[in-house]
TrEMBL record:
Binding site for a divalent metal cation: H32, D34, H65, D174
Organism name: Clostridium rhizosphaerae
Name of the protein described by the UniProt record: Ribulose-phosphate 3-epimerase
PANTHER family found in the cross-reference section: RIBULOSE-5-PHOSPHATE-3-EPIMERASE
Cofactor annotation comment: Binds 1 divalent metal cation per subunit.
């Protein structure tokens, strides 16, 4: 089953709780929360208090994507705020195996994200212990970017590793996905699609999610 994970980075933050309710009502499967610290990426978004403030507006799983340095310092804060999946970047953690196990010790799912320039081979040994891999199909830090075509090959690589080592692995893709390329991304092996601009475009959430789902 292919899951749509709208990124609230493109939402109207003045009515964030209501927008999360709307996403659930119109068929979203996961809420994707992009946390940026201004160090790992050149932008700052929000922290655990915002995640906590919207937790009671939906029963959908929260995928907290930590685009931050030293993510292990903040794992417990985001678990307490309501995270169901915590995604950390391979490039941001010197002791990534330890952090993965730390995340899982709280009873939540652990995921690793790869920037466009990071080879999939770097995480081969981690695959059996992961719940999800996130392939970044844009350079992280800003919404509205164009899909990087070679990300498709990386999705296929992760899919092959999944078939070999972890059949339950979720393969998430984030960046530049819309109705024009979602079928291609899914055909490569992705089963969780992050979409920000494509979901919130013209504030027509219901139609946009419906069109994305029809696209694959």
């Amino acid at each position: 089953m292919i899951k749509i994970a709208p990124s609230i980075l493109s939402a109207d933050f003045s009515k964030l709780g209501n927008q999360v309710e709307t996403l659930e009502a119109y068929g979203a499967d996961i809420i994707h929360l992009d946390v940026m610290d201004g160090r790992f990426v050149p932008n700052i978004t929000f922290g655990a208090p915002i995640v906590k403030s919207i937790r009671n507006f939906t029963k959908l799983p929260f995928d907290v994507h930590l685009m931050i340095e030293e993510p292990s310092r903040y794992i417990e804060d985001f678990v307490k705020a309501g995270a169901d999946i915590i995604t950390i970047h391979y490039e941001a953690d010197k002791h990534i195996d330890r952090t993965i196990n730390y995340i899982k010790s709280f009873g939540v799912k652990a995921a690793v994200a790869l920037n466009p320039g990071t080879p999939v081979s770097n995480i081969t040994d981690l695959i059996p212990n992961l719940d999800m891999v996130l392939i970044m199909s844009v350079n992280p830090g800003f919404g509205g970017q164009k899909y990087i075509n070679y990300a498709s090959n990386k999705i296929k690589e992760v899919k092959n590793l999944s078939l070999k080592y972890n059949n339950d692995l979720l393969i998430e893709v984030d960046g530049g996905i819309d109705t024009h390329n979602i079928k291609q991304v899914v055909s490569c092996g992705a089963n969780v699609i992050v979409a920000g601009s494509a979901v919130f475009r013209q504030n027509n959430i219901q139609q946009n999610i419906s069109e994305l789902k029809r696209g694959f």
